[in-house]
Amino acid sequence: MIFDIVYISGEVIQFSRHSWYVMSIYFLFSVFVVLQTAMDSQEVAFAKEVISLSDSEYGFLVSIAGAGILIGSLINVLCARKFTLSFIMGIGSIMVSVGYLMFAFSNHFVMASLGVFTLAFSLAFANTGFYTFYQNNIPVNVMGRVGSLYGFIEALLVIITTSVFAVIAHFISIQFTVVLGAIVMLILTCSLLLFSLSPSKTEYYQTDLVEAKEVVL
């Protein structure tokens, strides 16, 4: 079993070196997901202690997030072909960060609702763009192994980042933690947008004719 793990890891590392641009996008989006998870771990405490929402108001806030995802997904289905894949992923990710920033700096229910709706609405576009990019550019014969290995690393990063956020919230403040996370996320997603909109990398975002790829490792 150990030899199998080493063999799989070697294949994934070799593919990552060969397809550094694809894996750079993968890494940036994975860190984006990690930050989302860490931020969400502070959401309830932030809503109750900083914004002073009641239980019913927080429940309504969660419903607004669900509505944002639903509406975003519907518009994404209707308008996906009108935008490039790189635009959907890049702008969607940045708008998620903007939503978190709005939530982080909110001091009343209306502002928090706008932030939550914005991030949930935009998340539908960001996820669609990334997963389409992933399926188009990761060869089918290594897709599972790439997802497994990097998924394991992402899970470790989630644990570490969530723990760090909890420590910062305990020793400084919850609001500082959420604001810091939102700012870091915005910087990260700006980098993701610049990478994805690079004129020399447009071939990675072609969606008209996508064939299953295979590589010999």
Automatic annotation (TrEMBL):
InterPro entries: MFS_trans_sf (IPR036259)
SUPFAM superfamilies per record: MFS general substrate transporter (SSF103473)
Transmembrane segments: 20-38, 58-78, 85-103, 109-134, 146-172, 178-197
Keyword NADP in record: no
Top-level taxon of the source organism: Bacteria
Keyword Membrane (UniProt): yes
GO CC, any one term: plasma membrane
Entry keywords, A to Z: Cell membrane, Membrane, Transmembrane, Transmembrane helix, Transport
Membrane topology, record value: Multi-pass membrane protein
Location in or out of the cell: Cell membrane
Name listed for the protein in its UniProt record: Transmembrane secretion effector
